[in-house]
Amino acid sequence: MNIPSTSEASEAYIALGANLGDRQGTLREALHRLEHHDKIEVMRTSRVYETEPVGYLDQPQFLNMAAVLRTTLAPEELLHVMLDTETQLGRVRDVRYGPRTVDLDLLWVEGLTLDTPDLTLPHPRMLERAFVLLPLSDILSQNEESSGFRRLITTALQDIDGKAGIRLWTTNVWECGSERSGS
């Protein structure tokens, strides 16, 4: 574990996606880079799903997954680490919703509501995207029941369109972290 036990740590939920190059390898490398940060621990990861592109359709299919991080970083600091990780892994922002080597989105930090120029929490489009909701549902633990996060995700997933374009790719790309819930 990278985080000192005396630190006040939070759980953060992130979405990961990739549709260029070695998609699965890039997702694994992104998790490794996050795990090697001294204030981040990858706690659980979802299964990996292959999904149809949304928005800009003239591009390869994505691999999508979600992860729970335990971190002592403030949400905006975590976001900057995630953006740096994207850049290190070759992310170029040419076309909105276009092809990318990797995409890391901060979705939720322990029920925190935040709206700054750099970050909105919870993620404003999280509940509109089946490719985010399905992986999230894999990693929710019983602890989220009291906060209503599990109920929010489960209800949104039941009501959303687009699930037909999602296929299980693999059950796990993260060998180093804790077992994902539901294993």
Write a structural description.
Helices cover 26% and strands 25% of the residues. It has helices at residues 23-35, 75-88, 130-139, 149-159; strands at residues 10-18, 40-45, 48-51, 62-71, 103-109, 114-115, 120-121, 166-170. It is of the alpha+beta class and 183 residues long. Strand 6 and strand 7 (120-121) form a beta hairpin. The two termini are 21 Å apart. It is built from 4 helices and 8 strands; from the N terminus they run βαβββαβββααβ. Helix 3 crosses helix 4 (149-159). Residues 1-6 and 177-183 have low confidence and may be disordered. Strands 1, 2, 3, 4, 5 and 8 form a 6-stranded antiparallel sheet that branches. It has a two-stranded antiparallel ribbon with strand order 6-7. The radius of gyration is 15 Å and the shape is globular.
Give the % helix: 25-40%
> What is the number of helical segments per DSSP (H or I, 4+ residues)?
4
Task: Output the radius of gyration.
Answer: 15 Å
Q: Give me the secondary-structure category.
A: alpha+beta
Q: Tell me, what's the shape?
A: globular
Run of helices and strands: EHEEEHEEEHHE
Beta-strand level of the residues, as a percent range? 15-25%
Low-confidence stretches: 1-6, 177-183
Distance between the termini: 21 Å
Report on the biggest sheet. 6 strands, antiparallel
Question: What is the β-strand count?
Answer: 8
InterPro entries: Hppk (IPR000550), Hppk_sf (IPR035907)
Pfam family, one: HPPK
Domain 7,8-dihydro-6-hydroxymethylpterin-pyrophosphokinase: 96-107
Keywords: ATP-binding, Folate biosynthesis, Kinase, Nucleotide-binding, Transferase
